[in-house]
Specification:
ten-stranded mixed beta sheet, single chain, globular
Amino acid sequence: MRPMWYVHPSDEAGFALDDQFYVGDTGLLVKPVLKEGVTSVDIYLPPTTNAPYYNYFTFETYTGNGKTVKLDAPLHGHTPVLMRGGHILSRKERPRRSSALMKFDPYTLVIALDNTGRAEGELYIDDGESFEYRKGACIHRRFRFSSSADNNKASSNASLVSEDLNSAPTKQTTAFLKTMKDVRVEKIVIVGALKEWEGKKEVVVTEDGEKERKVAFAWKGGEKGKAAWAVVRDPGVRVGRGWRIEF
């Protein structure tokens, strides 16, 4: 958990807030419901120049202007959560009885674009049981989306790449990669998708050690204050490998 003053040290208006927080460096801004009987909450959005906020569940878009916005918080609904533009989240979407049973499940990447058409995030994986990560038995990747877009205008050379952050791999690294060789990315969701992608049906995937291939792509227009979004269906890239997707 990161308080508002930690993420926005120059915004004095957020210093005293203790009822909302960011989840690490993921860009997720959470506003828990702390009072009985309420069905909405007011969440403060600090001033930002190029990073909109998206509702995690509906993709409604908000501007960080140093004011509060009201979010629905129904009794049997979700805790209010916003995604800050410029971040990439890794998540698993198949419900299991325990996290251990999800070890080999595929990942979904959620890309929340900022106003310049960029975003990045990291994924770290180890066995979750031993101290072998100290010897390098882990996967540590950076996902980086970049384009020349500006405020959703036309772009060229938009791409998503996976970069290895393990600068000193060991034999334990190699062994761990073998155990995770079949863990893949099964879906990529891009929030704040570019208008120029409307009608696009395919993207080009290049993965280390594999031939270039095309996979299905779909663009969905936003409405009533919601961001446009797009999805890459089953790109099939492995989380432990380097790869690139051209849009």
